[in-house]
Amino acid sequence: MQPLEQMDLLHAAAGLLVGLLVGLTGVGGGSLMTPLLVLMFGVSPQTAVGTDLLYAAITKITGSAVHGWRDTVDWKIVRRLAYGSVPAALVTLAALSWVGKIGKSSEHVILLSLAGLLAMTSLAVLFRGRLIKLAHGLNPPDPSAKVLAGTTALGAVIGVAVTISSVGAGAIGMTVLLMLYPRLPVVRIVGSDIAHAVPLALIAGTGHWLIGDVDAALLVNLLIGSIPGVVIGSLLSTRAPDRLLQPLLAIVLALSAWQLSVKALANDTPKRPAIHRTDRAAAMPRGALLKPTGFLDPHAT
Residue 124: which domain range? Predict the structure, then answer.
């Protein structure tokens, strides 16, 4: 078997694993797939984000269709989120393209943004139950204009975060929506969040593809494993113990955030170039070549 074929099997297995976890826990695939590609497979951050965005868009189309069929999508919330997320995604794509062209510094920005968002996601996953109880005890913001402005602003933040790191539309977005719409059933918030993530991921993913940050072969292999993984995970989700899964998932996300931050800081540290033997003479002060060493100098003490 060729090494490329082995790597394809590994990518499909990674897609299967992430699909299972997404189906079991409901956490967005970007929180799991992007750090996996960067840390385990050595994929560049730009390619990992761009490929994962299209991967997430395709896998969430099915989930969005199911929620739409079950009438668990509030399209008013989806529109409000899109008012902020779509323009923000387009502006962020233009900025990433420009930053990448002037100095390859976009990789450092992506790694740090991804690390920070993963840390926030791990907290949101860990305290999801408490946040839901807290949201149900809140009163809706008044007046309604504040809800509209808050939802649009949330969409803009999600648009920037997802375009840079492919993370943010899942646990973080849903957490804020719970605070803005505390009287809305959780299933409708989840459905609205998924429905909004599909066009956003398609726009951001297409932008990364135009920039050149999408690996088509990698995308296909991830989908081969993830589609059955999501189906199996969804079927098993009712039997999975949340008290065990959520803390474990939060720990995995926190460790991924730490590893990515270490990687980003390591890449940012300037390395001192080594002086080759042929360059040492040129690097020594003038006259040092003629000056005797201490044990040969008769005047040395």
Answer: 3-267
- Give CA–CA dist 267/273, Å, rounded: 15
Q: What is the pLDDT of residues 259-283, one digit of tens each?
A: 888 887 876 554 444 444 444 444 4
297, two tokens:
């100098």
| SS3 state at 177 | helix
Considering the entire predicted model, what is its pTM? Answer: 0.73
Q: Looking at the domain assignment, is residue 285 inside a domain?
A: no
Give the Cα separation of 222 and 267 in Å (integer). Answer: 27
Asked whether residue 26 is assigned to any structural domain, the reply reads yes
Residue 215 maps to a domain: yes
- The one-character DSSP state at 290 is T
Q: What is the pLDDT of residues 124-168, one digit of tens each?
A: 878 877 777 776 666 666 657 888 899 999 999 999 989 988 887
| In-domain check, residue 165 | yes
**What is the tally of structural domains in the chain?**
1
Structure tokens that stand for 72 in this block: 């668990």
